[in-house]
Structures are given as C-alpha cells and as structure tokens.
Amino acid sequence: MNQRNPYLKHVKRLEFSVTHRCRSRCAHCALGPDRLDGELLPEDAAAALEAVDRACALESVLTFGGEPLLCVPTVCAVHQQAEDRSIPRRQLITSGCFTHDKALREHTADRLEASGVNEILLSVDAFHTEHLPIAEQYAFARALCEAGLGSVTVLHPTWLKGPESRDPYDAKTRACLRRFESLRLPVGVGNRVFPGGNARIYLADYFQRTPLDAGFQCGTAAYTERLDAPTSLAVDPDGSVRVCGFVIGNLHREAMADILGGYNPNRQPLMRALLEQGIPGLIAAARDCGIEVSPGDYDSPCALCRAAARQLK
C-alpha cells in the first residue's frame, strides 16, 4: 500500500502548477521557455489531492502557475478539497492579473473566499510590473479585502539582491509595494531571483558564473531535498507528478495512489546515481541513457539535473 512507502513517509506538502499560461513574460520567471501545455482539470486535481493526503497526511497545499487564476475552477476545487480534509495550510500564489473585467475580478475573490484558501501571496515587484498593470494588481488586492480575505493576503515580492539593496530593480519593487500601503497588507519575506529560467537569459549580468560544484548533494542547498526522503510532491499542468525535477508518473495514465505506491528512486538509473554518486554519477548515468549534459553549460547542479531529467523518456 502507498501508505507504507518508506520513500514518501516525510511528504507533507503538495504543489499544483495548474497552468503555465500567463499574461506576463517576467525577466525572472523560473519557467522560462520550459512551459508545458495543458491545464489540470478540477476533478483530477481534487482526486490527486485526496489520494496524497490519504497516503501522507498533508499539512500544506499550494496552487500556482503560470497564472493560476486563469483556471479558477481548478484552484477552488483544490482548496475546497484541502479544507474538507482539514489540511491546515492552503496557499495560492498569484499576480492578480487574470482579467480586465471588474465584475469577474470581484466574483473570483468571492469564489476564493468560499473555497477555503487561507494564504494568498500576491506577487508585487519590479519584474511583474514590467509587463502587468500595477493598477490591476491593486484592484484585485482590494477585491480580496472586500471579500473578507484581507487578513490572509500577503504581498509577496521577488528581490534581485534584497529589500535593502540600492539596485534599480529592488528600488522599484519598494516603490511598487508603497502603492499598496492604503490596503494595510503585510509584506512577506518574498523570494530572491535565482539564475534559472528567464533570469539566466535576461539577468545573467547579475550572477557570477562559477565552476559547477561536483561535490553537491541533494538536500544541502535551498529548495532541494533528497530523492529518497522528499517532503513535497508537485503536479504539473500536463498531469505529470514530480519529485523535485524527476517525473514519477502522470495522472492521465495512472491513479495517484498507484504512482505513490510504485515510487522507488533506486529503480531509476539517474535518480539512483544522483543519490549514490552525486553530480558526477548523474552525468555518467545520463550518458549511459543517451543523454548528454555538459557541466559548463549550467549555472548550478540543480539546473544540470533538471536538464537531464527533462530528457528522460
């Protein structure tokens, strides 16, 4: 039974990237050109959530994208299921820019309030406002407040260097945040730009290239964890289920319970090599599978690993 899968006993979080569609093209976007087609259907997402919670007793659920509010029914289905199952933390990350229509904006805020979402992270920063109207973001934030969600809404900026930095991007982000002061919304810690996706292309001058750390081990750096002891799972718009960057199944081909029950990183050559021998082992195992990844082409071990994982058949 999947409840007894020793490799998943630490999983407490499930993340749904409900769509990769977005109205923006942010310079820092982690997706970059690697966007997937498809969108998660409400019933598929809700069923997947129920299966993972039964197996792992989830503590946290996240919906994001792309722009997740281009798929409001799926977002609401996830959070309603999470509330029904008493999962305590139910997060949404959004830019707030999904429609020009005031009535639809307000209706969406009401639907979110009814769904049970209890943490909304509104992405307000210099990167988003390069292509998205900050007035629209403000209007959605106000609609959230009017729908009774002001107490669970947090401004969620992405910083290039940090909130105290004098860099023009960070200075503009501080100015963006000031536009929201009348709503009295808290400003969260937010994120830092990392050299991947679009940032690797458009913000490359801000990052110093260093030789790839051959001694890197999963779980020793931010946003990483060991493949044999993950704390979270992810579901992509095309139905792919991932542990970190590795696809372990697809909801369109098999039930989530079966995906969970069959997970064993030691059966997958690249995963096993990464666990046992680190990055050098991964490169060698990838080559044996006909996948060529050159360390000099990547800014981080994670970027190299994701590139190899994407080429797996």
Characterise this structure.
It is a single chain. The chain is of the alpha/beta class. The strands form 2 sheets. The protein has an 8-stranded mixed sheet with strand order 5-4-3-2-1-8-9-10, sandwiched between helices. Helices cover 34% and strands 14% of the residues. The protein has a single domain, classed as Alpha-Beta Barrel (TIM Barrel). The chain is built from 9 helices and 10 strands. The chain has helices spanning 42-56, 72-84, 102-115, 134-146, 168-178, 198-202, 256-261, 269-288, 301-310, and strands spanning 13-19, 60-65, 89-94, 119-122, 153-155, 158-159, 191-192, 232-235, 240-243, 246-250. The radius of gyration is 20 Å and the shape is globular. The mean pLDDT is 93. Helix 1 packs parallel to helix 2 (72-84) and helix 3 (102-115) crosses helix 4 (134-146).
Query: What's the structural domain tally?
Result: 1
CATH fold topology: TIM Barrel
Q: Give the C-alpha Rg.
A: 20 Å
**CATH class division:** Alpha Beta
Amino- and carboxy-terminal Cα gap? 26 Å
Unreliable segments (pLDDT under 50, ≥5 consecutive)? Answer: none
Domain Radical SAM core: 17-141
Protein name: Radical SAM core domain-containing protein
InterPro entries: Aldolase_TIM, Radical_SAM_PqqE_MftC-like, rSAM, rSAM_sf
Keywords: Iron, Iron-sulfur, Metal-binding, S-adenosyl-L-methionine
